[in-house]
Amino acid sequence: MFTPLLRPVTYTRWVHLTIGLVFAGVVLLVYPGTEGVSTGRAVAWSVALDVPLLCLAALVPGVRRGEGVQARLLLGPAREEEIGVAPSAGWADRGRTACWLVARVGLGVLLGTAAVAAVRTAVGVPLLAPPVAFALLWLVVYAGRLQLALAVRLLGPSGAERLAAAEARAERLLARNRLARELHDSIGHALTVTVVQAGAAREVADPAFRERALEAIETTGRRALDDLERMLVLLRETPETVVTEQPGLDRAAELFAAATAAGSEVDARLDVEARELPGVLSREAYRILQEGVTNALRHAPGTPIRVRAASRDGALELSCRNALAGGGSSRKGGGKGLRGVRERAVLLGGECETGPDGADWLLRVRLPLRLER
What we know:
- The structure is a single chain.
- This protein is of the alpha+beta class.
- The protein has helices at 8-30, 39-58, 61-75, 91-124, 129-155, 159-203, 207-236, 252-261, 279-299, 336-347; strands spanning 266-271, 305-312, 315-323, 351-357, 360-368.
- Strands 1-2-3-5-4 form a five-stranded mixed β-sheet, covered by helices on one side.
- Helix 2 (39-58) runs antiparallel to helix 4 (91-124), helix 8 (252-261) packs parallel to helix 9 and helix 9 runs antiparallel to helix 10.
């Protein structure tokens, strides 16, 4: 019963309501004045003068911004984005601002009238002062809640603004997911190759093999650093920086060489030229094959890897096959990498198939060569 009366926001809302009362009082003092004017005539004059003035003020775009800032500071919304602070962008915003101004002043006048009546009652009958003050404070609580609801309704973003904000959030989320997928594929592959090479170099006493392993680790690390720098450039979004080109299917030979150096024989046959493919298709195909090779190195190290890429019936068909070894490769559903492969395939209008195929683990993807806009 007493908790809302002890909250600071109750009294900041009271201040916000009082500002509307002050506006109406100033207008009434200027014209027609308070001397010799009855209460009924004062209210009539207040309505006749305040409403046109408030509607005229609402035509100024900056008024909406000022009202939004005041409402955020004094009304205490749960989330600041519930109340906008942008200037009026059209007649719909101006209309809602006018309704807000009229409602704000009207609610302030009603609360002020109730406060004056409460004071008169307390002065006339002192014994009623505590319950009257208690009732007045609760009236302030409910009036403040109503004021906040009106602010969210009339000063909040319009339907078009909410849609634009939702679209912007969706675009940011897609961009973040895309960057996360790129980082997972690139850095995950580099770390997998590095771990496999380092483990093999420790087990094999041949100095030449160790030299090749160290060279493969260095090469893979440099490529991972290039990919990481490219991602950071995209995250910084600085227009003056130059974004490095993403790897395409033309760099698949380097990918297979790294896997071979890691101890897994790669049987690759690419019956399609990277320059014949659209840029986005070539880049996504490279990432898909990279994920397939990385999974083979991670879950079945040392087993042969068979990679195929060909153009058939208006589609690019990719497959990566390796022998099942251990429990990792045969897990159902796959991890983040396989989910990323499926997402890439779906975004390009294709399809993806993963899972055990006899004694092998198979990753097969089919992507249309002609991408729809």
